[in-house]
Design goal:
The chain is about 25% helix and about 25% strand. By secondary structure, the protein is an alpha+beta fold. The protein has a domain of about 110 residues. The strands form 2 sheets. Strands 1, 2, 3, 4 and 7 form a 5-stranded antiparallel β-sheet that branches. Strands 5-6 form a two-stranded antiparallel sheet. The N and C termini lie far apart (about 60 Å).
């Protein structure tokens, strides 16, 4: 191979590597926007759920590595005639919720169905907000024993993307004075969801 061909080959290889790294960085930056937002919230003394003693030493929440395997498309089957019920919380308060619909999807080859909820007290202020609490096999190990939450938006079609990299802990994990909805047992995912926020230590 001539020197000119070697130089051309090395140049093309360098361009490929740069473009590959750039593409990878874009994906990480996009996915970690949630992590950045969460850390900024927890560092803000006016909004943070942390106790004063924990806030003093806080630097970052503990997250699982971003994993695209935990980004799935789910089918939403609405339940328009469902009635509001009292969802128990970690305190004596109850949260008025109704099952907005059922999410059906496949996660790591496992078929899953979860109820997604709409709260009565947020329906007027945030009519498109949906609440997805769930349990999985990491609870009590790498994640909080009581399960985690995800925030969703009412989709314009019968499908919705679920990004479990955005799963977060109830605030009562950080401070027992918060009143957090208890995850219904039927919202159990029969595998380990190694994505999102880990348990707080």
């Amino acid at each position: 191979m001539s020197n000119s061909l070697k130089s051309l080959f090395l140049f093309c290889l360098l361009v490929f590597l740069v473009l590959s790294c750039t593409e990878h960085k874009v994906k990480v930056q996009y996915a970690s926007a949630f992590q950045k937002k969460m850390n900024e919230l927890f560092k803000d003394a006016s909004k943070s759920p942390l106790k004063p003693k924990d806030l003093k030493t806080f630097s970052s929440l503990s997250f699982f590595p971003i994993d695209s395997s935990f980004v799935v498309k789910a089918k939403l089957t609405p339940t328009p005639n469902s009635e509001y019920f009292d969802m128990k919380t970690t305190t004596e308060r109850v949260s008025k919720e109704r099952i907005f619909g059922v999410l059906s999807f496949s996660l790591l080859g496992q078929s899953v169905e979860l109820n997604v909820y709409q709260a009565m007290d947020t329906k007027e202020e945030q009519p498109n907000y949906l609440f997805l609490p769930f349990l999985d096999d990491t609870n009590g190990l790498s994640t909080y024993g009581g399960g985690r939450y995800m925030d969703l938006t009412v989709p314009k079609s019968d499908s919705i993307w679920l990004d479990f990299n955005t799963a977060y802990n109830p605030y009562c994990v950080y401070n027992e004075l918060y009143s957090c909805p208890i995850v219904p047992r039927q919202n159990y995912i029969p595998l380990g969801v190694n994505a999102g926020v880990k348990n707080f230590k």
